[in-house]
């Protein structure tokens, strides 16, 4: 009997050791690429070509970042990305919460209809080409609004917000109604502040989606440099082999002419990658405690 | 509002019902104002494109009205089924979908179960925080990172393999056709494993701790507890996620393939949607591109119903 227990706990220890080592390995594999990119972006660019930069820059410099800051398209792209993220998130959260509010009201006659029309969109899509034709016909090509309007309503997000609102006591609304508040006031003054946790989750989802999007720029606004986005610029620079090649060479040439010193494409790529990743790394711990709650809620209700 | 509902259900005369309906509608005009504009919105951006499917049955010419288009029936579909490239892209789509389903679905479950066995909560939280991170990074960045890690000059994977003496000279991962599916699958796992484990972790957290205590008393070891308690406990969650994944099987998207692929591996990287994109927008063959899109949707709906049917038969539940 005693022997059995000892054997069991020995096995337990072996399991723990293997399990912890495995999970640490997962952690290293996940985090290493980011640290590597950071190290290269902070390393002197001629020195980088020699190779061997892993976790720490050998010759520390901020020069790569100065170089990319001279690239006009990148500045435009950065401000457009910030703009679309802010506008898209504020509008998206507000409107999705508003629609979710009407769906959370059991007395609302149109509830079933509105909810069906919106939920159905999760199960089908017109596809790439018809979607493209629609945007073209609506005159949204070569316009900033193509970043905001088409994805403004998300059925998935509305379901998540709505299930959160379903958990709030109805009595709050009823007493406000007694005081003569209309439905919009109830939504804006009472419900919205109470939904902070779920709205933080949704804001994170929308903001990340907006910040990371590049395909709409590629498809609709690639002819118009003033509407470029950061992700699209990064995509062009990373994509040496095909269409991005010329652009990349241009950047290298322009920066070289200005500075008259060689900046390797490698360092430029890594510095731009960092610029696109850092905002996410900064924002994400702030909302992390909310989004797990939101995720599981949404998944269960789905 | 309780009163309204009661009055509504009590009224038997249709006339009265109608009256109450309009009266209530008037009372609820704000709720209508808050939702109906967005129903129209959804109609325009989500439903209207479906009308565009008619293009697949026309020789669509931009700029002329719907009634002036030339109708060609199923010609585009026939052309599609006769194109070798179509079968190639279909193969690529299915292959990467199945690989994604097989590994992208099972590995997060294993990861969640292993993570659940960790008792140091700080360690657990740290792992979670780190493994969720790649989910929030764009595919553009991930493709850049993967290319960098696998590159022949200074890529860490080649450095390690050479340091261990497994290969003599750097291996060109990104230029090898046979490696492409694997690279896409692994990149996807790297990006989404932690995130996809969240739902399973939540399901595990909801299991009754007494079950584990009882099993411990009965002398069940860790593996037996994982196998006989954790796994069956999260079975409903696993099934729902599986069905949803099968529904999205063929809609794997094209971002990863587009960003990771290059002209050397195009025979293995081009998926149906990229094929549609190249023909439809690249070459301006809108009708043909739409036909490819329709085929894609039909297969995806078929798979969803198939999976749901099988699921229903075995568990008497349905996810749709």
From TrEMBL, chain A:
Keywords: Cell membrane, Membrane, Transmembrane, Transmembrane helix, Transport. Residues 78-287 form the ABC transmembrane type-1 domain. It is found in: Cell membrane. It comes from the Bacteria. The chain crosses the membrane at residues 20-42, 82-101, 113-132, 144-165, 186-208, 268-287. One of its GO terms (cellular component) is plasma membrane. InterPro entries: MetI-like (IPR000515), MetI-like_sf (IPR035906). One of its GO terms (biological process) is transmembrane transport. Its main location: membrane. It is a multi-pass membrane protein. Coiled coil: none annotated. The keyword Cell membrane applies. PROSITE patterns: ABC_TM1. Belongs to the binding-protein-dependent transport system permease family. This is Carbohydrate ABC transporter membrane protein 2 (CUT1 family). It comes from Saliterribacillus persicus.
Automatic annotation (TrEMBL), chain B:
It is found in: Cell membrane; Membrane. It comes from the Bacteria. It is a multi-pass membrane protein. Residues 90-307 form the ABC transmembrane type-1 domain. The chain crosses the membrane at residues 30-48, 94-115, 233-254, 286-311. Keywords: Membrane, Transmembrane, Transmembrane helix, Transport. GO terms for cellular component: plasma membrane. GO terms for biological process: transmembrane transport. It holds the Pfam family BPD_transp_1. SUPFAM superfamilies: MetI-like. The keyword NADP does not apply. PANTHER family: POLYGALACTURONAN_RHAMNOGALACTURONAN TRANSPORT SYSTEM PERMEASE PROTEIN YTEP (PTHR43496:SF1), PROTEIN LPLB (PTHR43496). Belongs to the binding-protein-dependent transport system permease family. This is Carbohydrate ABC transporter membrane protein 1 (CUT1 family). It comes from Saliterribacillus persicus. The lineage of its organism: Bacteria, Bacillati, Bacillota, Bacilli, Bacillales.
